[in-house]
Specification:
It contains 11 helices and no strands.
């Protein structure tokens, strides 16, 4: 009986995840075609082929849906960053590479970037894991004497602010790797790192991101229900 219940639970979780993915895929598609402001939760419901009661069971409001989209994109981004940079020996190298990679990866996905720009300035990091990961790197760098920051929270906000500003710039007028590296170098200097080391950190070779948009990777990997 217990095995049967577990099987049913798994099936229900898989079904819910598939429906959630279908809803968010519909939303991303409509945002691409119409823009966020011209899309309603009912438009998404119709496009996804789900009932009104069903979609509100997943997302009680349009903003809740945007936050969920942002959270899943950030989780995908964190997974890519961890795979590439957690093995770096220096926490300050991890910080700088994470920031540069984030800007480039987000800015290359116009629709995903617009969703994130709507959400991040209002709530900061959309996942607690993201915040803890960033804090751990800065704390370790500070203990090792690699950075000098009087406030961890302000240091985090500087990092989020740089990502937000450069992604916004990328959406409005385009952005180059030179722009991203210059922003990262200036952030490192704000963290108390000398000019030569800040320049070195900003030029560490980054891996090529996976093919496709950030939002495509989210949908391809599935969403927990």
């Amino acid at each position: 009986m217990e095995a049967e219940e577990n099987f049913r639970t798994r099936n229900a979780r898989v079904k819910r995840a598939k429906t959630r993915t279908r809803i968010l895929a519909a939303a991303f598609g409509l945002f691409e075609a119409r823009g966020i402001d011209a899309t309603t939760i009912d438009d998404v419901r119709i496009e996804a082929g789900v009932s009104r009661g069903s979609i509100y069971n997943y997302f009680p409001t349009f903003d809740a849906m945007l936050r969920d989209m942002a959270a899943h994109m950030v989780m995908q981004l964190n997974a890519e960053q961890s795979a590439h940079f957690d093995g770096l020996g220096s926490p300050i190298e991890r910080i700088c590479c994470n920031i540069r990679y984030s800007i480039g990866r987000i800015a290359s996905d116009r629709v995903g970037a617009e969703v994130l720009l709507r959400v991040l300035p209002l709530i900061g990091p959309p996942t607690e894991a993201m915040r803890k990961h960033a804090v751990a790197n800065i704390e370790q760098a500070q203990k090792l004497g690699l950075v000098r920051v009087p406030s961890l929270q302000i240091a985090l906000e500087l990092g989020y602010g740089l990502v937000t500003a450069l992604v916004q710039r990328g959406m409005n007028s385009g952005i180059t790797s030179k722009d991203i590296n210059a922003g990262a170098q200036m952030l490192m200097r704000a963290f108390g790192i000398d000019d030569d080391e800040a320049a070195r950190l900003a030029k560490i070779r980054l891996p090529v991101p996976p093919a496709g948009e950030l939002r495509d990777a989210v949908l391809a990997n599935g969403l927990d229900g």
